[in-house]
Design brief:
four-stranded mixed sheet; two-stranded parallel sheet; 5 helices; 8 strands; about 20% strand
Length: about 190
C-alpha cells in the first residue's frame, strides 16, 4: 500500500474480505507498486494487490491488481471481478472455521526486491552525497533500504516519512558537494 491515510482502512477491509472468502493474505505494508509486481511473480502468489492512486491527490485511492506473473490483469478479468463485486454476478464463498484464510506479514519480500534492484546495477558512489526526496510516498520505506548498502554513499532522506498526505513522486539528487548546485543530477520516479 502507499502512505495515504485511507490506504490503511482500505487494506484492513480488503484483507478482511479476502480471508473471509478463504484466501490467505500476505502483507507487504508500505511499499512501491513495482515491488508488489516483483514479489507476486518471484514468490509464486496467485495475484498481488497494490493499494494506491499513484500520482493523484492523497484524498483519492484505488487498487492495482497483478496476475501471478506480475502483470496487470486483462480487461476481461477486471470486468469479471467488477461484475462479481458490483452486480453480485457470482455467489461468493463463505467458509467457516479452519477454512477461513490467514494473514501474514511478509517483510522479507521487500528486502528481496531491494536486493534485486541492487543486483541490476554496479555503481561506485565513493565520496558522493545522496539526498533522497521520497515526497512522503510509498518509496519512503524502500528507498532507505535501497541506498543504505551502496558502498561509499552518504545519504540524507528528505520527506521520507509515511505522512499519509502530500504524496508525490521520488526525487534523487547526487552531488560531490551537497552544497554545490553545479554538480547535481535530478531524477524523478513515480512508484
Amino acid at each position: 500500500k502507499d502512505t495515504r491515510r485511507s490506504s490503511y482502512m482500505f487494506e484492513y477491509s480488503l484483507v478482511g474480505g479476502l480471508v473471509a472468502s478463504g484466501a490467505d493474505a500476505y502483507l507487504l505494508h508500505v511499499t512501491t507498486t513495482p515491488s508488489v509486481s516483483y514479489v507476486t511473480r518471484t514468490d509464486g502468489f496467485d495475484c498481488g494487490v497494490m493499494i494506491s492512486a499513484s500520482h493523484n491527490p492523497f484524498e483519492h485511492n484505488g487498487i492495482k491488481i497483478f496476475n501471478g506473473e506480475g502483470y496487470k490483469l486483462s480487461d476481461e478479468l477486471e470486468e469479471k471481478i467488477e461484475a462479481i463485486v458490483l452486480d453480485n454476478a457470482e455467489e461468493l464463498l463463505t467458509p467457516t472455521g479452519g477454512e477461513v484464510g490467514r494473514v501474514y506479514t511478509c517483510d522479507k519480500a521487500v528486502d528481496d526486491y531491494v536486493r534485486h534492484l541492487l543486483g541490476t546495477v554496479s555503481v561506485n558512489l565513493q565520496g558522493m552525497h545522496i539526498a533522497v526526496d521520497c515526497a512522503n510516498g510509498s518509496a519512503s520505506t524502500t528507498a532507505k533500504k535501497l541506498f543504505r548498502p551502496i558502498p561509499g554513499a552518504r545519504q540524507k532522506g528528505l520527506f521520507a516519512r509515511n505522512a499519509m498526505q502530500n504524496i508525490s513522486g521520488i526525487a534523487v539528487f547526487f552531488s560531490s558537494f551537497i552544497s554545490s548546485i553545479n554538480s547535481v543530477l535530478f531524477l524523478t520516479f513515480n512508484g
